[in-house]
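User: Show me an example of a complex going from sequences to structure tokens.

Assistant: Sure. Here are the input components:
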Amino acid sequence: QKEVEQNSGPLSVPEGAIASLNCTYSDRVSQSFFWYRQYSGKSPELIMSIYSNGDKEDGRFTAQLNKASQYVSLLIRDSQPSDSATYLCAVNDRGMRFGAGTRLTVKP
Amino acid sequence: GAVVSQHPSRVICKSGTSVKIECRSLDFQATTMFWYRQFPKQSLMLMATSNEGSKATYEQGVEKDKFLINHASLTLSTLTVTSAHPEDSSFYICSASGSEETQYFGPGTRLLVL
């Protein structure tokens, strides 16, 4: 079983809609979770980190963590075409363990 | 956010040669640096973790004699791909973390071995 699993997509949403990205992880003792965005040919850039159960909001982004279900999600409100990228979920386990990434396309 | 640089950004070399990639934390002291590799259409895979002044810890399946890592200071780590072969062609990305757990990624180095 992979340590971090994501739906690879592609996910397509219209501009202004909410994009919902999901991730599950296998190690129940994991404590630190991250969402990164990666544009084609570029390195990942950090969007959010989350450590506690519940929601964490930062601008248009909301991360949700449910440790009992071993589930992390990212919501992007008012999606913009510039949000089109691959979104990587990661768990910090002596180094980041990344999911395969979900490719998001926001259509104008 | 913290800034991490990598040099070179792109390198093309002949099979059998060695290539050195530098990773620098520009505005903070990085107690730990990480090296990742990303093949086309795949996610990042952790290769090794290095702490300043210590030997690197390699992930399973990564050859430590082929991928030499030196972390001589709190702001610099180097990855040397020795006797590179075409299958080593990849996007190599470093990251650095200081006192916080968050890792800051460098811009990456694209290696092409002919």
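The lines above are the inputs; the final block is the predicted structure for all two components together. The radius of gyration of chain A is 13 Å.
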